[in-house]
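thread from #wetlab-drylab

HS: before we spend reagent money on co-crystallization trials with magnesium ion, can we at least see a predicted complex? here's what I'd submit
DV: go for it
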Amino acid sequence: MSSVYYHIGKYFLLMVSTFTKPEKRRIYFDLIVQEIDKIGLQSLGIVALLSMFMGAVVTLQTAANIDSGWIPRWTIGFTTRQTVVLEFSSTIVCLILSGKVGGNIASEIGTMRITEQIDAMEIMGINSASYLILPKIVAALFILPFMVVLAMFVGISAGAFVGLTAGVVSLNDFEYGLRYSFHYWQVSYSLIKTVFFAFIISSVSAYHGYYTFGGPREVGASSTRAVVYSMVLILIANYVITQLLLL
Amino acid sequence: MIEVKSVSKGFAGNAVLKNISTAFYPGKVNFIIGRSGSGKSVLTKCIVGLMEVDQGEIFFDNRNFTILDRWDRKDIRQEMGMLFQGSALFSSLTVEENILFPLQMFSSFSKSEMLDRVNVCLKRVNLEGKNRLYPSELSGGMQKRTGIARAIAMNPRYLFCDEPNSGLDPQTAIVIDNLIREITYEFNSTTIVISHDMNSVLEIGDHINFIYQGELSWRGNKTEILHTDNEALNNFVFPSKFMQQIREKLRG
Ligand SMILES: Nc1ncnc2c1ncn2[C@@H]1O[C@H](COP(=O)(O)OP(=O)(O)OP(=O)(O)O)[C@@H](O)[C@H]1O
Ligand SMILES: [Mg+2]
């Protein structure tokens, strides 16, 4: 148990060094742009693919399970919207990204640690935590919400598409379901969660990478730990935020 | 001048450095030698502040480095250059970007002045025109030389070289040694070299510190090392029959 406190303490100390004033703004700006590309744009494909199939499957599942005259067909559109907007787009996309992006961040920083590149920065008088970690966190906080919005669009469109082509719902019904008791608040809720998840993915993975000691094997271990811890923390955070925001 | 005063350092109750006091002089190539595991790297890491000492103090030209926190250390850090044992080049950056790195962070040069400086440093280490290559595209010796170019980019007052010629052939090793010596004399930097290589110690060692079992066992220059009666040092520098014969010849 004491080791849990040890890690939490060490994590917060790392965050303190990370969020101290950057050396040269201009350089940080360039780094953030690079990270937005790496964290966001290079993951667009997987996010689009994932949300497409999620939206499609949710629509078909709902259609298959409301085979009763009592439940109106527009429920299909409604359920697809609720599932995709509230949970799948934010939570599932972030879980997938913690595997891709988190693993990447941890192994990149971990490799820099074991090859003494981080020591080389420190010797020059550069705050390595801030230089390496801050741009990743800022980039993730910035770009992930956009990707989640994209996932919502793709998911719902894919749902509508398979619903229509499979002939289980009419466009009118689906659209009625989409609009039924919709509040923008539901999107905001999902985006608020995304911001927390983005912080978890980038900072927790960076923490595991930054404190890698040893050789290539340890880099692999750090990267695995980064993914596992990010995922578990995302699940816990999802529960806590849902409880706080929806009830 | 860098002064080390009564420095001790241990890990989990296992003492690695025991009460080491010595000094490293400007415009000289100062060596730290000793057997594998004797604590050379730990001593160097303590000096540059990558490790905290358990006891003792380190002074950089009368500035007490030990009591400074990481923010105040920054000023002295910017006067340091270090060549790491594994070169520690930034693998995602080209040769040019590696050398630009400290300049971009800390100098007030314009872009073209920085590029000029990069080319001067590359020329210094005979790597002109290699600007666009990545570290993975360089040989070990070229990586070391790039590491030196990066270390001298900011005209360091203090230059640290951890095993600069390990893993290099004897001829390339001599090129690197001469480079380190020339840079030291040219910039009057306080240079500290960690080495196993007796060739370079006897070639460019102005001041030599011999660490034995965590203690500073001997200090002197390369002429004195021939005449020492320190047994551990003799066994270290002249381990073979061949080297002993050379010593006898050199003693004349
Ligand atoms: N981070 C560390 N944690 C625990 N022990 C360490 C650590 N770093 C070094 N040591 C121990 O300190 C001792 C000296 O190590 P050091 O790396 O200074 O040796 P060295 O003289 O540089 O040897 P070599 O010539 O092989 O590089 C060794 O016994 C090593 O096990
Ligand atoms: Mg060593």
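DV: The pocket of adenosine-5'-triphosphate (ligand 1) is lined by residues B 11, 16, 34, 36-42 (CB under 6 Å).
HS: ok that's useful, forwarding to the group
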